[in-house]
Amino acid sequence: MTFCWFATFRGAAEAGAAEIDALAGFLARTPGLAQALIHTPATTSDPYLNDGPSPALALQLYFPEIAALEAALAAGGHLQALAGAACPPSLAGAEVTQQAMLARAFPVPDPAFRTPAGALPCTYLVAYEGAAEDLNVWLAHYIDHHPPIMARFPGIRQIEIYTRIDWCGFVPFARVEHMQRNKVVFDSPEALTAALNSPVRHEMRADFKRFPAFSGGNTHFPMLTRAVG
Fold it and tell me: Which domain of life is it from (predicted)?
């Protein structure tokens, strides 16, 4: 079982390379951390959606145990510094939201990355921010039907779906309660754009129209992804 903490920074300038390097070093020292992902804005083209500019920064921190996640987020935990000295200066004053979730990984035909040297993979971060009429029915449909279609995207390397949990944490960022998140990962923004303009994207849209009733909309943001740890 894997737990994932999300922190999303909006309304600020994008952090510079030196700031991201410093942030990566800080995150790597988090006790109990399995892996951190640092997402920065990318640009792609989706024939169905345009949710505006991507967030200035998004973090995903993975922990193998809920106790390790909660210790890092505790009042005296390592991640408290993200609200102070460890926050990139460019992001000072950003609107920051957070949520901890259960991570569910799904198989893809070829998970081996072929990202060009010196470049970063590209992640499509998706959030369903509202509420389902029946969350159990919603999740059952989504988990049963959507990943098999996602896995047919050309060049897809990873699929993960995130579902809600109760969690303790005292990093002073605003909490959100998105009912679900997911991501798909590709070698590059160009590879993600090609997938989004493939026939599989139309299959995805057709399945979206069959989703159980929900409100609150959803967002889709392309991000370059740096792995730490």
Answer: Bacteria
DSSP assignment of 153-215: STT--EEEEEEE-------SSEE---SEEEEEEESSHHHHHHHHTSHHHHHHHHHHTTSPPEE
Query: CB–CB of 207/121 below 8 Å?
Result: no
CB 36 within 8 A of CB 62: yes
Q: Report pLDDT digits (tens) over 213-227.
A: 999 989 999 999 999
d(CA 161, CA 147): 9
Stretch 113-119: mean pLDDT? 95
For position 49, what pLDDT does the model report? 84
State the average pLDDT over residues 105-109: 98
Residue 150 φ then ψ, to 5°: -55, -40
> Any alpha helices (H) in the chain, and if so which ranges?
17-28, 66-73, 135-150, 189-196, 199-208
Give the three-class secondary structure for 94.
Answer: coil
- How does residue 71 score in pLDDT terms, banded at 50, 70 and 90? very high
Maximum Cα–Cα distance for the chain, whole Å?
A: 50
Dihedrals φ, ψ of 167, to 5°?
A: -150, 155
Domains of the chain: 2-228 (3.30.70.100)
